Amino acid sequence: MPHFIIDCSQDILQKKSPNEIMDAVYNVAESTGLFAANDIKVRLQPYQYYRLGEGKKNFLHVFGYIMQGRNTEQKAALSKQITIRLTELLPEISFLSVNISEFETATYSNKALINPENTDHDRHFGL
């Protein structure tokens, strides 16, 4: 945790490499101190087919999914910092947006949590 999923128009990858874009998001997330660096996951999905408003050429949207427990100010600051960094990296982009959503601890599961040896229910068990 957290997961940052980047959706973008295919042409964005002609302006910056996938690694440059993913690194920008990763580095901002790490710099906030809200997450352990080893827990941050970033992935990118380019779209060949999409429709935008008149005169708009391209888009990039970051969906941030984090474990509950951060306050609204922290989530807003994270969203804003990612937006600022990506705007610096891709100043000519038509649509650039970020939203941060929370995983509910009570309904979250992963491989570590179902391990029978994990008697403390540590979601990082064995990692």
Automatic annotation (TrEMBL):
Recorded coiled-coil stretches: none
Alphabetical list of InterPro entries matching this protein: 5-COMe_2-OHmuconate_Isoase, Tautomerase/MIF_sf
Gene3D superfamilies attached to this UniProt entry: Macrophage Migration Inhibitory Factor
GO molecular function: 5-carboxymethyl-2-hydroxymuconate delta-isomerase activity
SUPFAM superfamilies: Tautomerase/MIF (SSF55331)
Domain of life of the source: Bacteria
Protein name: 5-carboxymethyl-2-hydroxymuconate Delta-isomerase
Keywords recorded for this protein, A-Z: Isomerase
